[in-house]
Structure formats: structure tokens, C-alpha cells
Specification:
The complex is a heterodimer of chains A (185) and B (324). Chain A is α/β, with parallel strands linked by helices. Helices cover 30% and strands 28% of the residues of chain A. Chain B has a five-stranded parallel β-sheet with strand order 7-6-5-8-9. In chain B, strands 2-1-3-4 form a four-stranded parallel β-sheet. The chains are: A alpha/beta (185), B alpha/beta (324).
């Protein structure tokens, strides 16, 4: 891809290494908990959560891991200004619920923090986790709300006009992170 | 009226006749995630918080009004119910005056059920609020058509190529008309079956197969949508007697068994058991009548959600603006 507008920030190998490190950090932070719920935010967060869950399950087979998906469309604060998104994705949480459990919200890119705000509101409608952690592959800065991640894969500061894209094989055919437009350098 | 660009709805939902296949499919797809909301411990999402919706039912309805109300409440809208009896309508106020008065109280949407065909459009052209047609005379009942489509699609995973026969009182039925438009736009083959007195005169010109015998319809169909014999509209002697109607056109277990294969049974309710449909069919394994009721809430949530977002050009901005 010679597109000058698209700059590769992380290769597939780097992303895999980073995710493996993040899986370890989740286990560390979860010390003492006998079970974990990894909730991926629709769409790419879902695939990252599945990957992380598989990795943790492999290294810690005695830790109970459940996964879920969250679509925050109906909890956005900007529906009336930008209009509806015709495709609302599924929200599925584990059958045991989230009450009293350790919940890890997984997303691809953390930017303004508004998605996470919406995700916290939506989770609160499903129950009261004992503790909630935020885990993101890329933190690109630019927060508009007082929200910080607990586990970060990579800091990639991006200018407001630019867009950090996380690619996952299930949707994009390959794994990686690219910066599109508004190049930082 | 021109189709708004893409899958987005315009200001109002008046009928399925003016929607494109793409728009109908978008509503069905949007309804899918809304189904799950009704299974949650807290059956509510905040998406229409602060929106005010008036349910204006100039004609009696229990299930449609309740279904809309559940849909509105599960989207966190504020709702006001209004029925013709006991209102200023019974004092002679016109439809537009009533609506203008409601609008002066700063509402966002009106869900209207009215006995006159075209009343929903009449209202939509005169007020700024979104209008949802919840049944206008013999014209259309679009959300019922949509929930029937969703229920059929749930079962077969498709609509195109299916053979759907609508049986019973087609003449008085807005449900039949909305089904006809919706099914044909999505590529189903549609037939009707009923006494000649209850079929519209021009039904064959609409490109619909007509069965005179219910046995032939059952032989042909994958799906039967059994309409209610509208007893309240029946002063004109359209059928000799209810017993005779059941004997000739009733959907009975014996008739279905003779077909020797499974046929999906829909009925928009309320049922006249023992008239157009027998109890052992209505309660049988191939009946999805209660599934229709469940889907009705999800469909109405989807319609309200899509209309609330408003103008297509703003929705277009959402697609390209997408800063997560």
C-alpha cells in the first residue's frame, strides 16, 4: 500500500505481541478474581476481546473467562445531531450477567472517550460489576471526557483530522494499525 | 413522493407502497438488535430520551396501541395517549385542528390510527412532527406489514421466492394491502383467497393470484397470513354466516394435514377462533402468531428510531463523520 495518506503504525506481528502483553496485564490487574468478563465494543473491539480471551484462557486455564459484545449506538449522545445509524449491532452479555464480576471493556481505539461513556451507561443497565477496567489497543489522545484506560497497547498521538484504523482479520482481512490522513509528521 | 436517498426513511412512515425494498430491508435489519432489548433485565435504552410522542387513536385499538407504547417506553420517549372518545373530537374538532393543538404543545411524533383512508398522509402534510401510520381506514397498516415480514424472515431466513397467501377479508383490510406491497417488493409471490364479496374488484390487476378454494391456497402456499373477519365492518351481508365461512374458508387442522407439509401460519389478531382459524391451528406448532406480537414491538422501535434521527442528509453526515 503506497497510499501516502495511509501510514502503517503497527504490523500484524507487533499487534500480536502487543495483545499478548495486554492479556498478561489483564490477568495481573485481575489478581484475586476467579472469573473475568471481556466485553468487546462493536465492531472491532469484539474481535480483540475474543483474541484476548483466547490468549488468557490458554495461559490460565483455571480462570473462568466469559465474553460479551456491546453496541453503544443507542446510548450515543449525538444521535439527534448526526442522525441514526441504520445498522445497530447486537449486544450480548454472558448468561451469568455482570453483577459482582470483574468486567473488562475492550475497544480498538480510544479517542474522545464518548464511546466509553456510552458503554459504561449501557453496562449499568445490565448490572453492577464489582470492578470495570478499560482496555484499548490504541490510545490516540484527544479526550473530551475524564476517561482514562487501565490497559493500553500503544500510544499513537494523532491530529484531529487524522484517523487511526485498527484492522482485524475478521473484518478487514489482515491485522494491523494504520494512520489515515493528517499525518503527524 | 420521491424516495429519500439510501435506506433512510423520510419524515413519516405512511405505507409500504412508497418505500423501496432497500428501505424495508433496513427497517427489518434495524429491528433485529431491538428484539434483544425486550429480553434485558432493564428493558430500556435512552435513545429517544426527551422526545414526546402522541398516540392519537381515533379508532379503537388495543394491541397496536399497547405495542407502540411499549416500543416508545423502551426507547425512553415520553408518551401521551389520546383517543377519540371523550376528547374534543367528539365535540366536532377537525383532525388538523386537533393535531395543530397537540403540536403547539411541542411534540415530536404522532402515531395515528384513523378510520379514514389517507388520514395519515393528510396529517403528515400539515404538521412538522414525524407521523407514523398505525392504520388508516382500508389503506395501509405499515408496521403490521413490517412485523409480518420480519416474522416470515425469521422463519425462512429470506422473503424472496416464498409463496405467501393472504386469506379472508381482503377488501376491508389495510393489513392485506401493506402485506401485499411489502411482500412483493421483497420478491415473494403473493396470492389471496376469500369469498368473492371480500376481494377487491381489481385484485387480479395487481398481479396477485386469486384462489377461490382454501384447499388450493393451502396446496400452493409456504405461508398463510390468515386475516380476521372484521365483524364490525360486516353489516353489508358479505358472508351468509360465520359458520358457513368457517366451513368453506376456515383454516383447519384437517385442511392443513391434507397438504402433507409444514405451512407457516400468521394472524394479525385479534382472532375469531372457530371462524377464520381453528384453535388447534392457532395454537399449533406452525403458528407464529405470538412471535408476531413480540416482533411488533421490535419493528415499532426500529421505525421510531429511524424516524427520530430525521433528515437523510444528516444521516449521511453520520456515515462520513464517524469519529469514534
Amino acid at each position: 500500500m503506497a497510499d501516502p495518506q495511509r501510514k502503517t503504525m503497527m504490523t500484524a506481528a507487533t499487534v500480536e505481541q502487543t495483545l499478548a502483553r495486554m492479556a498478561g496485564e489483564i490477568v495481573e490487574q485481575a489478581a484475586g478474581a476467579e472469573s473475568l468478563v471481556l466485553v468487546g465494543i462493536h465492531r472491532r473491539g469484539v474481535h480483540l476481546a475474543t483474541w484476548l480471551a483466547g490468549s488468557i484462557q490458554g495461559s490460565h486455564p483455571d480462570l473462568g473467562i466469559a465474553t460479551g459484545t456491546l453496541d453503544i449506538t443507542l446510548y450515543r449522545d449525538d444521535l439527534m445531531t448526526v442522525g441514526p445509524r441504520p445498522v445497530v449491532g447486537p449486544t450480548r452479555l454472558p448468561t451469568g450477567g455482570i453483577d459482582g464480576r470483574l468486567v473488562v471493556i475492550v475497544d480498538d481505539v480510544l479517542y474522545t472517550g464518548r464511546t466509553v461513556r456510552a458503554a459504561l451507561d449501557e453496562l449499568a443497565d445490565f448490572g453492577r460489576p464489582r470492578r470495570t477496567l478499560l482496555c484499548v489497543l490504541v490510545d490516540r489522545g484527544g479526550r473530551e471526557l475524564p476517561i482514562q484506560p487501565d490497559i493500553v497497547g500503544e500510544m499513537i498521538p494523532a491530529p484531529p483530522g487524522g484517523r487511526v484504523e485498527v484492522l482485524v482479520p475478521e473484518i478487514d482481512g489482515n491485522l494491523g494499525v494504520v494512520l489515515v490522513g493528517g499525518s503527524a509528521d | 413522493m420521491a424516495h429519500p436517498a439510501g435506506p433512510y426513511l423520510g419524515k413519516d412512515l405512511l405505507g409500504l407502497e412508497e418505500l423501496s425494498a432497500e428501505q424495508i430491508t433496513a427497517i427489518l435489519d434495524t429491528a433485529e438488535p431491538f428484539k434483544e432489548i425486550s429480553e434485558r433485565p432493564i428493558k430500556k435504552v435512552p435513545v429517544l430520551r426527551g422526545k414526546t410522542i402522541v398516540n392519537a387513536f381515533f379508532e379503537n385499538s388495543t394491541r397496536t396501541r399497547i405495542s407502540f407504547e411499549f416500543a416508545e417506553k423502551r426507547l425512553s420517549a415520553d408518551t401521551v395517549n389520546f383517543s377519540a372518545s371523550g376528547s374534543s373530537v367528539s365535540k366536532g374538532e377537525t383532525l388538523v385542528d386537533t393535531a395543530k393543538n397537540l403540536e403547539a404543545m411541542r411534540i415530536d411524533m404522532v402515531v395515528i390510527r384513523h378510520g379514514a383512508s389517507g388520514s395519515a398522509r393528510f396529517l403528515a402534510e400539515r404538521i412538522d412532527s414525524n407521523v407514523v401510520n398505525a392504520g388508516d381506514g382500508r389503506h395501509e397498516h405499515p408496521t403490521q406489514g413490517l412485523l409480518d415480514l420480519l416474522t416470515i424472515r425469521d422463519h425462512f431466513r429470506r422473503i424472496a421466492g416464498l409463496k405467501v397467501c393472504i386469506t379472508g377479508d381482503i377488501l376491508h383490510s389495510r393489513v392485506a394491502r401493506s402485506n401485499l406491497w411489502g411482500l412483493r417488493k421483497l420478491g415473494a409471490e403473493v396470492a389471496v383467497c376469500g369469498p368473492r364479496t371480500l376481494l377487491p374488484r381489481d385484485v387480479e390487476e395487481m398481479g396477485v393470484t386469486v384462489f377461490r378454494r382454501i384447499e388450493d391456497a393451502i396446496e400452493w402456499a409456504d405461508v398463510l397470513n390468515v386475516l380476521r373477519l372484521q365483524l364490525e365492518r360486516m353489516q353489508g351481508g358479505f358472508v351468509p354466516s360465520l359458520r358457513e365461512y368457517n366451513r368453506v374458508f376456515g383454516v383447519t387442522r384437517a385442511r392443513l394435514d391434507r397438504a402433507g407439509r409444514d405451512i407457516l401460519i400468521l394472524h394479525p389478531g385479534p382472532m375469531n377462533r372457530g371462524v377464520e382459524i381453528d384453535s388447534d391451528v392457532a395454537d399449533g406448532p406452525h403458528s407464529v402468531i405470538l412471535q408476531q406480537v413480540t416482533n411488533g414491538v421490535a419493528i415499532r422501535m426500529a421505525v421510531l428510531y429511524l424516524l427520530a434521527g430525521g433528515a437523510p442528509e444528516r444521516a449521511e453526515a453520520a456515515k462520513t463523520g464517524g469519529g469514534e
